[in-house]
Amino acid sequence: MKIIIDAMGGDNAPREIVRGALKAQTELGVDIVLTGRAEDLLQALKDDGYTDLPRGLEIAHASQVIAMDADPTASVREQADSSLVVGLGLLARGGGDAFVSAGSTGALLAGSTLLVKRIKGIRRAALSPVLPTKKGGALLIDCGANVECTPEYLLQFAYMGSYYVKKVMGRQTPAVGLLNNGAEEHKGDPLHREAYQLLKTAGEAGRINFVGNLEGRDIAFGAADVVVADGFSGNVLLKTMEGVGLFFVDQMKEMFMQSTGSKLAALLMKKHFKSFKKMLDYTEYGGAPLLGISKPVIKAHGSSNARAICSAVRQARDFAQGGITEDIAQNIEFMKTAGEESPS
Amino acid sequence: MKIIIDAMGGDNAPREIVRGALKAQTELGVDIVLTGRAEDLLQALKDDGYTDLPRGLEIAHASQVIAMDADPTASVREQADSSLVVGLGLLARGGGDAFVSAGSTGALLAGSTLLVKRIKGIRRAALSPVLPTKKGGALLIDCGANVECTPEYLLQFAYMGSYYVKKVMGRQTPAVGLLNNGAEEHKGDPLHREAYQLLKTAGEAGRINFVGNLEGRDIAFGAADVVVADGFSGNVLLKTMEGVGLFFVDQMKEMFMQSTGSKLAALLMKKHFKSFKKMLDYTEYGGAPLLGISKPVIKAHGSSNARAICSAVRQARDFAQGGITEDIAQNIEFMKTAGEESPS
Question: pTM higher than 0.80 for the full model?
Fold first, then answer.
């Protein structure tokens, strides 16, 4: 198993990426290819006491770095020698089993579609982070790659998410729900009403475990393992969860600093808060798989540290080993509708 | 000032509604008309020790009650002698200055539009709850009344929300933001991109204080006073905030019950938690105004107790006194676009 990592992507590149790669190589026993400026990567290794390339680690030199705010499609086309494009090129040619990047989400999406290509029959690739929930997390598909969707896209998201959660998160019959503005079957705009019927039919045929519409309030309590969403409302869901989470943490901090009594309480709660924080910590969940691409691609969080990169590599390994891409390709006939290809 | 209250609407009707009405009458000095079954209301008053109708309180008898799950439009048309329809009829005829109901949201929306009518030129009425934020709350307009919107609807929401927040929440130049899937101007689907331009133009003309796109994560921290949203994603935002809030409270409770030390910490924190809970408590914020209707209508929370009803009456009074309906009518020319009337 060989995982390709964009060593120049993210806020803490290359140092934390290189450290995460070393950690993954040691802990998971996978081979790693780092893409990026060779001199920078060798220096990062040297700073950590490695004068030679450690066993199981390779460097694929790439002289350019795509900026986080660069235009996605243009940068992929114009920066052929960037760490991201070189990495995706390697993946496409079979130079590794999966690709991990903490760089620009837009460039990773555009590059994966252009260079690695979608699975035949899949209309759009979706970005699918794991939301923290009471029941060990739920996959949100899509969280913003596809702002405009058709019912068919949502049907495909349901299948892809279901295969991923089964194989990588180890849940035998993942509960699939549709993010909507109410629980009842008739809720939503035409897109969501049509998608509901497609998911219901797939559920009745026993191909997915469709549990119906989901409301924003159900998700944190673990009402579903897979949350199917159009990219617009999925993005609202994801960022609202993040925002409210940060808000609570902020308020807690303020509250515990208010008096001597509250400071004592904070001391007493230290251990408990630690496990709670762990539940909310994205570094525990790894990155977001890009589902629908013909080979495994993982988007790691932009602020990833070594630990988060190591989690993302584990996830990339499980993604590749699970045969999810094959599952999708083999069942593509069930994911087609008579409808139009693009959103109206 | 006379406020009409649907005494049969909500989970705790009529007892808590009647109590809330009495509380409002005493504390705010407003006159109240209760609509509902006279015998039930008199019994509720008697149970609380009132053998006569207290001064400032009237009863408008209505023999029917619209069920929470009834079809909105059909129930409004068919149940002419329901507490909701009787109340709206009174409001329409000038038998009171504002109407408060904790009953079915759908029926209240349908009934208000059919019986009280929209302000001339307003395309759709919007339901606008106050979201708890670090800066004393933000008005979300719309939260689900209009699942499909046009850019013009969103423009009208921005103006209406701005007038309401200024007059009822007392903020001189309310910051108006557009809920979108990213901060940059080009973000979103065509609906949100077009709405952005309309809001930007209104902002440049000095008619609203447009602060740009909002992401879900900004809202709890108080990035805007008015959050303009299509009803679908507004609903996702509202319910996600509720859900994550409940989830945190649930997790806190679990954490504080885990050990002797944590139980002691809970005792030490009791006072601090109380003020935090107050910030999140919907009974503090009253209900959600229905903006765009030609007279003030407030939707109180379905689970309202006396305190929440009293807050909703205060809000209804401020809504009526503030002249918001007049503000909207006088500025209607700025809220028109050349575009189509209905969502495509």
Answer: yes
